[in-house]
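Ops channel
N.P.: pipeline sanity check, posting one input/output pair.
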């Protein structure tokens, strides 16, 4: 065995030693050595640490070694071995991994060595390896250069934070004068690792992205097979956290799993979460909070036992996501849209708690709120009474619901307007309740203007609220609605405006099959006023029965 100790690179790259093919080289790394220049003749390379120093540990013999070779006289080969790109194991920096010893100094030494030696290496080649074990620490690790921290696949590598602040800060790129001056650090991030906190009673943050530093950025960071658990806030972002992605990442915290606080108009762009789980089995408040200035996409993510609160001023997109209440009484909404633009495509909202007390899955409550739901399903297998509607529109700029599926008999309405929603901005197309016998629609949700004539035709499939403006004093007939629901529930409301300039003529409500059944004579509104009357379809006999009417005229 030939030992090559800590040496500097020869200026003339002269031969250090000529080795036979049967020789092995044991490279002893010094703290300042970045590259070795060796003459190899089919030799085997291994590395081992000097006492008290970190060493490079290539865990995969096919990776981590950068060799450039040229022939030399005598059949030998002169090769450049780039040790700067070998991963650094935290155990080779003194970490114990017993879950008790504070391994913070050893972990920091590994981070420092990896990022220092790899300053001129390709992006993604600086790496810190966390072997199987539980490594306790109390300090905060601030990642300021591109780096990959990775463990053993399968979740056996754990970093356990026992401090009281933030475990890891990720701000690995530098911004100068509004321009990112470091190379885009794609490939930098964490994979195959568990980050465990001290519990939600402590005001701790697991991972902080961006750090509100105007000269730092987390652009391009990616986290794979990563689990953040038992923090007050699992993941928190700040300005500079952009083009960030999390894949197969699990957030299990009793506080807030994902917190994107309000920032500037462009706080963060291009944040993506794919195949992620946000689980909070105990809280009754939102465990994902998105503030102003963010642009976020969730794809095939699961929100279990908690709610998502969107109060952003930009865009949030959910594709094929699952919202489920599986433990707590549903006394909050699974999704609350307060402002900004929120899109759900192919999402599933499911209540599995029989003690649910809330009446809707989604609450829209903001003067600038826009919700678009396409082919989403609302299921309530656990409670025969609540929720009773899919969406509550308390206040909104626009709500569009396309192809909603209501999958329980308790869901008698696709949506409902709140008292503050003075203007109508709700559109619905093709809603159905597959839990009601014979199928059909629960509600349609579209506001439709009727054509005034001696016979006013109504198509029940076109809406739930129908506006009719009467322009003369002649009597007219309200025809029986066409296309009533097929064995299911629907309500229709007629809002009748008197613009005739005088007393309206009599309204003849068509009786008989699919016709109207009024509780009493309808009082026409006075000129310049309007009145409403609401009917509910009775599937057993095919008639529309009056269930309510306005008690007095309403000024136009």
């Amino acid at each position: 065995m030939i030992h090559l100790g800590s040496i500097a690179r020869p200026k003339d790259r002269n031969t250090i030693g000529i080795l036979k093919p049967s020789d092995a080289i044991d490279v002893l790394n010094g703290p300042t050595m970045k590259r070795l220049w060796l003459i190899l003749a089919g030799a085997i390379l291994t590395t081992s640490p000097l006492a008290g120093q970190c060493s490079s540990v290539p865990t995969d013999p096919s990776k981590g070694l950068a060799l450039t070779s040229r022939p030399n006289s005598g059949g030998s080969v002169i090769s450049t071995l780039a040790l700067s790109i070998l991963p650094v194991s935290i155990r080779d920096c003194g970490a114990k991994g017993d879950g008790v010893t504070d391994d913070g100094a050893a972990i920091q030494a590994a981070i420092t060595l990896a990022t220092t030696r790899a300053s001129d290496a390709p992006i993604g080649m600086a790496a810190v390896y966390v072997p199987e074990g539980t490594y306790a620490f109390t300090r905060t690790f601030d990642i300021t250069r591109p780096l990959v921290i990775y463990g053993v696949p399968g979740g056996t590598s754990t970093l356990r934070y026992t401090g009281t602040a933030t475990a890891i800060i990720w701000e690995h790129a530098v911004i100068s004068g509004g321009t990112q001056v470091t190379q885009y650090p794609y490939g930098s991030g964490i994979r195959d690792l568990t980050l465990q906190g001290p519990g939600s009673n402590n005001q701790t943050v697991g991972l902080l992205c961006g750090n509100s530093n105007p000269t730092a950025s987390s652009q391009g960071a990616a986290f794979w097979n990563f689990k953040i658990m038992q923090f007050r806030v699992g993941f928190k972002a700040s300005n500079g956290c952009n083009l960030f992605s999390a894949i197969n990442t699990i957030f299990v915290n009793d506080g807030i799993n994902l917190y994107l606080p309000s920032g500037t108009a462009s706080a963060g762009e291009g944040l993506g979460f794919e195949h992620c789980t946000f689980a909070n089995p105990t809280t009754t408040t939102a465990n994902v909070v998105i503030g102003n200035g963010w642009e976020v996409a969730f794809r095939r993510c699961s929100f279990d036992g908690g709610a998502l609160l969107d109060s952003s001023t930009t865009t949030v997109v959910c594709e094929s996501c699952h919202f489920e209440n599986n433990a707590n009484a549903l006394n909050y909404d699974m999704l609350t849209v307060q402002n900004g633009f929120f899109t759900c495509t192919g999402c599933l909202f499911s209540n599995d708690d029989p003690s649910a007390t809330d009446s809707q899955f989604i609450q829209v409550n903001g003067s600038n709120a826009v919700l678009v739901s396409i082919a989403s399903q609302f299921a309530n297998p656990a409670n025969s009474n609540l929720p009773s509607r899919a969406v509550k529109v308390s206040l909104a700029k626009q709500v569009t619901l396309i192809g909603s599926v209501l999958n329980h008999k308790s869901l008698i309405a696709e949506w409902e307007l709140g008292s503050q929603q003075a203007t109508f901005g709700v559109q619905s197309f093709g809603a159905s309740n597959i839990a009601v016998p014979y199928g059909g629609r629960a509600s349609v949700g579209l506001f439709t203007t009727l054509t005034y004539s001696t016979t006013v035709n109504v198509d029940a499939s076109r809406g739930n609220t129908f506006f009719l403006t009467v322009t003369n004093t002649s009597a007219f007939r309200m025809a029986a609605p066409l296309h009533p629901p097929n064995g299911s529930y629907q309500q229709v409301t007629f809002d009748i405006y008197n613009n005739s300039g005088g007393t309206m003529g009599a309204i003849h409500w068509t009786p008989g099959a699919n016709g109207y059944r009024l509780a009493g004579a309808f009082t026409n509104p006075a000129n310049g006023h309007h009145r409403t009357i609401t009917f509910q379809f009775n599937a057993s006999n095919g008639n529309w029965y009056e269930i309510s009417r306005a008690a007095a005229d309403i000024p136009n």
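N.P.: looks fine end to end. The first helix runs from residue 104 to 117.
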